[in-house]
Amino acid sequence: MLVTTFFALFFFVVASTFSPGGATTLATASGARFGLVRSLPLIGGIALALMLVAALSAMGLGALIAAQPVLGLILKLVGTAYLVWLGWVIAHSGAPAPRDDVSQPLGAFQAMFLLFSNPKSWAMAVSAAATFSSLSASSLSLAVLLGLSFGIAAWVSLTLWCCAGVVLGRMLRTSQHWRRFNLLMAALLIVSIIPTWI
To answer: Which of 64, 98, 100, 191 has its CA 20 to 30 A from that of 53?
Structure first.
């Protein structure tokens, strides 16, 4: 039974982190524009934040936030505003210059803020903590298990999405191609907000 539960956790974490959403869209767009190496702070920031959200949820903080409607609403508003702003920036960024040293990808702290203010992340982590609490006798060990599981899976997932962005970026040859790509990434980012409000 325990092995089955571990497999269930594995599939839950993989499905949660590899499926398209706001973080994966940002990783793809960053890979296309800046490449993998310059996108590593974004990837690391999101992965670290998701690891912390999962660990804190296992220790009860996620349930506390879920039980306070005002906190949930504040998270939704802040997260939505931030994602809309990022979508606007992406939509208006244009093609990268041949030597694009001025513009910078999102940094680790910006990425962490994005994930901490995303109510979907908290809901996913709270759900995991409640569903897989039988895997550990203490909340601390459950926090370590969930934190490492989500953090590692997010790192791998975002790296793969970023690499897909690098490949796409090499296929974008004209400013018109970049404009369409940027608009698509911005639209996907905005669409990823909708489940938060449903």
So the answer is: 191
**For the segment 168-187, what is each residue's pLDDT rounded down to a tens digit?**
988 888 888 888 888 888 88
Any domain includes 17: no
pLDDT recorded at residue 9: 83
Whether residue 1 is contained in a domain is answered as no
Q: How many domains does the chain have?
A: 1
Full residue range of the structural domain in which residue 78 is found: 23-93+104-197
Give the global pTM.
0.81
Q: Give 120-153 pLDDT, tens digit per residue.
A: 788 788 888 877 877 777 888 888 999 999 999 9
Does 134 fall in a domain?
yes
H, E, C per residue of the chain: CHHHHHHHHHHHHHHHHHCCCHHHHHHHHHHHHHHHHHHHHHHHHHHHHHHHHHHHHHCCHHHHHHHCHHHHHHHHHHHHHHHHHHHHHHHCCCCCCCCCCCCCCCCHHHHHHHHHCCHHHHHHHHHHHHHCHHHCCCHHHHHHHHHHHHHHHHHHHHHHHHHHHHHHHHHCCCHHHHHHHHHHHHHHHHHCCHHHHC
